Inverse folding.
């Protein structure tokens, strides 16, 4: 129907044709259902994107934590090896130290003065 057909002239006045209330209700209900479905779909998409992003960040964080743990363990192993290599027993028992000649007399010095002397 065109606009001119919807308007009926009664007694010299233009009165638009009203649609029945049942049609208005059906139209409003269908628009409401469409709007609610659109909102539900939009919220679902946002939720899925957010949960996926959170899962990805959690996985990355777990991988980084495992890498950190490995590096800390390696660091502890290296420190332990360094301490073992520098321990007095290892230094004293090394072939290099055993091949050195011991001095006949030991002299301890404290800031340019002799503190104590001793025999080896």
């Amino acid at each position: 129907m065109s606009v001119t057909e919807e308007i009926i002239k009664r007694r010299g006045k233009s009165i638009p044709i009203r649609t029945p209330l049942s049609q208005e209700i059906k139209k409003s209900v269908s628009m409401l259902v469409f709007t609610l479905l659109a909102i539900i779909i939009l919220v679902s998409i946002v939720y899925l994107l957010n949960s996926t992003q959170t899962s990805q960040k959690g996985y990355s964080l777990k991988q980084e934590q495992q890498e950190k743990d490995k590096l800390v363990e390696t660091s502890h192993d290296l420190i332990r090896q360094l301490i073992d290599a520098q321990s007095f027993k290892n230094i004293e028992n090394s072939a290099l130290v055993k091949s050195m000649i011991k001095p006949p007399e030991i002299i301890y010095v404290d800031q340019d003065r002799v503190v104590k002397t001793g025999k080896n």
User: Anything to note?
Assistant: The radius of gyration is 46 Å. The helical segments are 3-6, 21-86, 88-93, 95-98. The mean pLDDT is 83.
